[in-house]
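Usage example:
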Amino acid sequence: MSPDRRIRRTQQALTGALVELMLEKGFDTLTVAEIADRADVGRSTFYAHYADKEDLLQGSLSELRDGLRAAIEDEAGAKASHPALRFCRPMAEHVGDNRRLHALFAGGRGSGMVQELMREMWADFIREGWPGADPLAVHAVAGAFEATVTWWLGTAPELSAEQVVLRFEALMTPALSR
Amino acid sequence: MSPDRRIRRTQQALTGALVELMLEKGFDTLTVAEIADRADVGRSTFYAHYADKEDLLQGSLSELRDGLRAAIEDEAGAKASHPALRFCRPMAEHVGDNRRLHALFAGGRGSGMVQELMREMWADFIREGWPGADPLAVHAVAGAFEATVTWWLGTAPELSAEQVVLRFEALMTPALSR
DNA sequence: TATGTTCCTGAACACTGTGTTCGGAAACAA
DNA sequence: TTGTTTCCGAACACAGTGTTCAGGAACATA
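Running the assembly step on the lines above writes:
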């Protein structure tokens, strides 16, 4: 991709350090010096590549997003009680397998921006499985799912992904098939 | 309430300035100096009353919350398709009448903390109208409502509160009455 | 392998915002 | 009036940001 290997090295190190540190202490309290240190990169080098923390996050996010989307679409053939909810099961399983990561996304620790992007992504998934959907319904379902995940990870972590999916589908299916 | 009038004056001025400024430019970019200036209060005085921005917000929030709750409970007798949704109509009307305020709450501009508290408050309302409710369902409905309001104010502001309520109730009622 | 370009580095700098301290002036309750 | 409490503003130390620059290292190319 990148012509110069040094650029690739540096950027990979920085995004890697960002993810590591976000898992350890969230995004808001992170400093640029901290990220550069962890990446073993000079602080001035950071600014040669990114304008600020948010800029780096933005860049890293599309990667994470693509990875997530791939992980979901692997199991896209799954059956669901309503096509709009096809995303639920693979997504819930991904959440269950990467709880710390998703706690960052769903909870408030991910800098707002992450949260917004995740919600938008969920809305996309719903739209894909549900052509011609009412936009109000799409956002309502996305919000319901996000809140459910947040509640799951924060308050009822003993539940399995399967249990959450079943209860969520049982709740939302009647709303969608009217 | 307060023994000393100066304390009351100062704290009222500060919370007032906070709300004003939050409406103008959100919470995150606010500085303590800015708040103190707007309140016409010395910066050191600010720190004599509050540890930091968040502390002041916390204090102001319970007021706002109480005001909101009162505004809702005035119209608590309203009919709804399901008791758990009784909060929707008065809340949506309050949102419609105070769009700038709620755009702060629902959107990401309110510092995360606000957002969390609002969601918790919505969950409370739902629980009150729906004793013995499944906690997953409560959070799902609260999340759905929050996302709906965010979508409304951000993407479809031309809708009236009445329209939003009708569509939201039509969507969620089948989910709740099973 | 030699050459010219590009990138990385570390230190320095100016700047903004934070939170604390303190002595004198003003407002307060009694 | 008197003694207490609060307010003020200026000063201070500190942490983080974003920029600049000169020298050295890594690179692509021929």
